């Protein structure tokens, strides 16, 4: 039986931050499911950095189907969790079901990979207090308000919590996450 990994996301998630870990984890032999507020075709976005802009820009991205709704997630069925960024975490953190999912993974000390704005969800679920994290740099104050020690670096590993700033940090983020994941839930 394949080891299952869960990705929690929604509309306006950053395309690369959903699809890169999805494909990379499948390549390693894990079974990956995407959960969202409801089962539907999700519409992702592309965030990019352009000269002359004070912040990132946003354009329409890929679409991808959600496999299951947050309410249908049985956390015990999954070995690890991925929390992508984009704008989706800004509204998903208000969903009690996604907070239930995050809290269950954190309490069970299962591996969690979070990137960009994804830590907003982990913070809302109470999973960052006393932890070292990175996130999109504009979230430094949010991370500190959640009780985390913020580090502006490519990737931060704190036990089973692996965080990164944004999609340019993918390679190191997934390399570090896979190291943690193989230790906790190796592919048979």
UniProtKB/TrEMBL annotation:
DJ-1/PfpI domain residues are 4-178
Q: Which Pfam families match?
A: DJ-1_PfpI (PF01965)
Q: Which regions form coiled coils?
A: none
PROSITE patterns membership: PEPTIDASE_C56_PFPI
List, alphabetically, the SUPFAM superfamilies matched: Class I glutamine amidotransferase-like
| Family in the record | Belongs to the peptidase C56 family.
Indicate what this protein is called per its UniProt record.
Peptidase
Organism, by scientific name, is Streptomyces amritsarensis
List the lineage, top down: Bacteria, Bacillati, Actinomycetota, Actinomycetes, Kitasatosporales
């Amino acid at each position: 039986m394949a080891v299952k990994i869960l990705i929690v996301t929604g509309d306006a998630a950053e395309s690369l931050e959903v699809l890169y870990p999805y494909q990379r984890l499948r390549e390693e032999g894990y079974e990956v499911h995407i959960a969202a507020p409801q089962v539907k075709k999700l519409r992702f976005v592309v965030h990019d950095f352009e000269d002359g802009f004070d912040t990132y820009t946003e354009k329409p991205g890929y679409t991808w189907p959600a496999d299951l709704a947050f309410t249908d997630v049985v956390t015990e069925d999954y070995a690890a969790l991925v929390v992508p960024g984009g704008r989706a975490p800004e509204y998903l953190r208000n969903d009690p079901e996604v907070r239930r999912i995050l809290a269950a993974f954190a309490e069970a000390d299962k591996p969690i990979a979070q990137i960009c704005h994804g830590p907003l969800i982990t913070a809302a679920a109470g999973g960052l207090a006393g932890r070292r994290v990175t996130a999109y740099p504009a979230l430094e104050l949010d991370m500190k308000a959640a009780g985390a020690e913020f580090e502006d670096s490519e990737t931060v590993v704190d036990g089973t919590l692996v965080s990164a700033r944004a999609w340019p940090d993918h390679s190191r983020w997934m390399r570090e996450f896979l190291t943690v994941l193989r230790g906790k839930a190796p592919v048979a």
